[in-house]
Specification:
heterodimer, A: alpha/beta, five-stranded mixed beta sheet, 18 helices, B: mainly alpha, two-stranded antiparallel sheet, 2 strands, 3% strand, flat
Amino acid sequence: MAPRPARAAAALVVVLALLAAGCRERPPSDGPVTLVFKHAKILGPADPVPGLLRRFEAEHPGVRVVSEALTWSSDEQHQFYVINLEGGSPPFDVMMLDVIWVPEFARAGWILDLTPLVSAAERDAHFASAIEPAVQDGRLWALPWFMNVGLLYYRKDLLAKYGLAPPRTYDELIRQVRLVQAGERDRRLDGYLWQGKQYEGGMVNVLEALWANGTRLLDEAGRPFPEPERARESLAFLRDLIVSGVSPSWVTAGDEELTRRPFGDGRAIFLRSWPYALDLFELPDSRVRGRVGVAPLPALPHGPAGAASTGGAHLAVSARTRHPALAVELVRFLTAEAAQRAMTEGAALRPSRPALFADPGLIARDPTLPALLPLIRAGHPRPVTPYYLMLSTTLQPEFSAVLVGRKSPERAIRDGAAQVEHLQQALTR
Amino acid sequence: MSDRRLGWLLLAPALALLGGVTVYPAIWVIWLSLQYRIPVFSISRWAGLAHYAFLTVDPRFWSAAGVTALFAVASVTLECGLGLGMALGLRGQRHGRRAAVALLLLAWALPSVVTAKMFEWLYHPAGGLVNFLLGGRPVNWLGDPALALPSLIAADVWRTTPFVALLCYARLLTIPAELYEAAEVDGAAGVQAFARITWPLVRPILLVALLFRTLDALRAFDLMFVLTGGGPAGTTETLTVYAYRALFQTLQVGFGSAIGVVVFALVMVVAIAYLRLIYRQEASA
């Protein structure tokens, strides 16, 4: 045997051995306990999270909390969690979840049941509409961290100029748009902006139209479109907003930011959006500073006003954590009143605790808080089911087809219901 | 050890690596596509070809297949045509070639998500530059089912034409000037010179560009994902967007894998067809 091939073979063995060694797991160290907290980057004037985590460490000697940021896009966060939780890669202990994922993660067995650890009084300190979506099969799986609700933004100055009060019904809103547009004679002034793009936000707008007309997407047994006639009216109403010109035709491609900008530039009378927009409208260089009011979403003929969707983030504990007691402790610490106050001050988010909406210190910083309280109380969670994302991605193209006039509302409801039933059968077989 | 055996031994790490990172996952995806597997609902059982059978009658799948095909044909045709035109223009340009090449590279160098975000604002119906240039008419580029796909194709053409242009330009630079001088002496100029000299010499490289672009276009994802989310009414949902929704948004691992396998098969068929064409051309050259 020639010496050269032998040496080459030996080198190969060494390389493979090194590779194998690199793959072996390191032994667990005996040092202090480390908790890993996965969350999206908190935007806003001053990120309060690092300060809160240091305070938690000070209260729990020997514990270190490492915060790892997720990307801001909600789809990517979901993808990250799914791959890592299903794939069983190195665990994280505490995670921030979009409220619509909680039932899914609970059903998948990825998060811990918090029911025995959270007292009734502790639960009741949060909005019911924030707790409800975190309950699945009668158990509590996450605690709310901050809160969102759909709002109607209106131009105070324009409504006052024509002697109008914020609309209670959509009929009123349509009349007001006509009146103001006729009076202003500004071709560039749009009426009512909302989110009609084919995405989760579009789904939210359709759900709100269903609730505003006194109906729902799913009944208690999970059957889709329990009152098809009312659902038809809701969808026809959204399409008519576009056909009649009350809303510009481009709302069929509008998401939160694309609709917020024109309203912020003073080019629309009404806007449906989330509370974050208010902070941007009140910035010193905003063109609508001091001229924007918020009101509950208006009503359709068969339903209530203020039937807005809630949203927000919850904190849950990974089922694979090695320190469940400490991780739950961290969740309770971060969702407690003191931490939520810090989040409201530093990150301009809305707390999930009604008590904080009457907090004089917070109201001094954000005078809109008291006005938001009844709006959040009246809010609805989106359907609380482990297959919500499947439901939403299945129905989004159907609803979008109605908004752009490709399908009649009747047809979309029929096609949508058939697909949802097909889905439900596949899941329960 | 014979030289032959040594050869295999030295190839082994590369083969193992290739097997590990491409063949193994591909087989795994095919295996998954033959099962009902939805982890959230603890569903995991054999499906056989049921997912593929469903795909044949799934209107959303056929719509996505149509969108993918239309997107691929339109964007690749435009990109290759415009790219070749740009390359010829560049060669004919006397001054500022470097600046022009740098500008071309800029579009190509932008990450596609950045491009998508940029076009989101360019296409904005109320404040976008495109409508402003059209005299302020509120054209609903991304929200009108008839315009959404053409708008995405235009964005893709803007982004990837430079790639084709630079490949062709590089080839053009290697064509000796004497060829054209000789042709001119023989009385062949303009269109004739292009047909007899430029085109035959550029064609092989254009075919390679065509191959790359087609494979990319068949897997088109980021532009539609960012700009339209597949809407309105599903008119811009490609096969990969549909697969993504099934796999990562709704966790239908088996079904999503089946869509993935179809995309994979489609890409393989197209790639093999192109490669044959390229080899045949090389053999005849």
